Amino acid sequence: NIDSMVINDEKQVFHCFGCGKSGNAAVFLMELKGITMGEAIKELSTMAKIAPKEQDVAGLFHLVVIMLGNA
């Protein structure tokens, strides 16, 4: 059995072998929910309880990994 998606927490990126899409936490959320980049960044900021000016999209990837593990 081969996984169809991998998440590299160290590099903070994902790659889906099924559809070929790759990216960071914001891109993942955009694809998952069909939202814009701005909406994804705002949602990630809210999840991480940080103000948008303090956000680090790459640093929020770990949050998505944790959320996927709890889904």
Keywords:
single chain, 71 residues, alpha+beta, three-stranded antiparallel beta sheet, 3 strands
Describe this structure in words.
By secondary structure, this protein is an alpha+beta fold. The chain is 44% helix and 14% strand. It contains three helices and three strands, in the order βββααα. The protein has helices at residues 25-33, 37-48, 61-70, and strands at 5-8, 13-16, 22-23. The protein has a three-stranded antiparallel β-sheet. α1 (25-33) packs across α2. It starts with a strand and ends with a helix. The mean pLDDT is 78.
Short structural description:
The chain has three helices and three strands. It has 71 residues and is an alpha+beta fold. The chain starts with a strand and ends with a helix.
Any chance you could write out the topology, listing elements then pairs?
Elements lengths: L4 E4 L4 E4 L5 E2 L1 H9 L3 H12 L12 H10 L1
Antiparallel strand pairs: 1-2, 2-3
Helix pairs in contact: 1-2
Hey, roughly how much beta strand do the residues contain? 5-15%
User: What average pLDDT do the residues reach?
Assistant: 78
Q: Helicity level, as a percent range? A: 40-55%
C-alpha geometry:
globular
Which class do the helix and strand fractions yield? alpha+beta
